[in-house]
Amino acid sequence: MSKNIDVELKNIQKKFGSNVVVDHFNLQIEQGECVSFLGPSGCGKTTTLNMIAGFLDPDEGELIIKGKRMNGVPSNKRDLGMVFQTYSLFPHMTIFENVAYGLKLRKVPKAETAARVNKVLELVKLPHISDRYPRQLSGGQRQRIAIARALVTEPTLLLLDEPLSNLDAKLREELRDEMKRLQQEIGVTTIFVTHDQEEALYLSNRIVVLDHGKVEQIGTPWDIYNRPASEFVHTFIGKSNRMTGVVEQLYDGRMLLRTDAGFNLFGDIRDKQIAPRTNVSVYVRPEKITLHTEDRGTQDVNRAKGTVKLTSFLGAHTECEVEVGRYTVTVRIQSAAQLEPLQAGQTVYLEWKAEDVFVFPREGQDE
Ligand SMILES: Nc1ncnc2c1ncn2[C@@H]1O[C@H](COP(=O)(O)OP(=O)(O)O)[C@@H](O)[C@H]1O
Ligand SMILES: [Mg+2]
Fold first, then answer.
1. Is 45 in the pocket of ligand 1 (CB under 6 A)?
2. pLDDT tens readout for residues 243-275
3. Which residues in the chain come in under a pLDDT of 70?
4. At the N or C end, where does the chain have fewer CB atoms within 10 A?
5. Residues paired with 176 in a beta bridge
6. Do 62 and 100 share a structural domain?
7. Is position 366 within any domain?
8. Cα 213 to averaged position of ligand 2 atoms, centre (Å)
9. How far apart are CA 84 and CA 160, in angstroms?
10. Spatial separation of the C-alpha atoms in residues 116 and 90, rounded to whole Å
């Protein structure tokens, strides 16, 4: 079944001076999708969003919204709703006037304006504050109003640039839940810019991972987490234990790796071909390792003996640092596993599956 494409970026490039900030960005966004741009500060997220918003023009490439070429079309002709990191409400206007602003510009009649403003204020769960001024609201409330203001015109596309970054942790989580609910309820096509991987995983249908202006991967949260296209993607999303080593042998869909700590590991050979003798980085995530106080002698898994260095109880899980040769390996133990509390200095046995090992070729001999 073919879906409607709302937004299309075709080979979009942007330079500032000789600095390539967005490098041949290609993307199609379906109607109703929520797509995140995720990457470290300075990777080109805001610049890309600004080109979609019409604040910047691409040097190369085409931007298409609802089937129409948008290069050179002014921002106010693009039918967008926007929310930024800093509260961009007009301080001298009431909440009602702030939210109604876009409708006023479009010369929507008064009665209809009032109805639509009240409806979006209810959507963001702030129906009773339309007479107040922005300074009388908390940070979280102000961002809700900013979202209401962006939605009131029923835009084709909602653009959000780090809208939660200025809020404290608890509020950020609350508003994140709220945004997910809203996005699903209204079904507005959304682009969400963030440097926070958890936010991106939580909110998006698909994530675009960016590094230095280049698209590293486009995929569902599951794909990005479980099938990372590069070492950068793997390490940017979630925690992972890194070791270095060399590929010894390939056989039966498995690779045998010799780590620099002296012990061997098995990894699955995925789609990429890595030749024997290749220097590699080897990763395993903390939640993929099981910890045992006795050597179970399990066959066909990776095993390592280690010493507990540090444990941190975090409620739902415990994080345990285990010294294995020259490596400190972090293991995440779910509280439901109900292990006896571990003691520093205790000997433990770690196990993890070959399929949970990520292997990336490593250039040079830097460590
Ligand atoms: N107006 C500008 N002039 C020159 N360089 C800029 C300008 N805006 C952004 N940059 C540079 O472009 C890169 C990407 O910036 P930006 O898109 O804001 O990154 P992000 O939003 O991912 O943090 C950065 O190196 C930044 O310094
Ligand atoms: Mg930015």
1. yes
2. 999 999 998 888 999 998 888 999 988 766 788
3. 1-2, 271-272, 338, 364-367
4. N
5. none
6. yes
7. no
8. 12
9. 6
10. 19
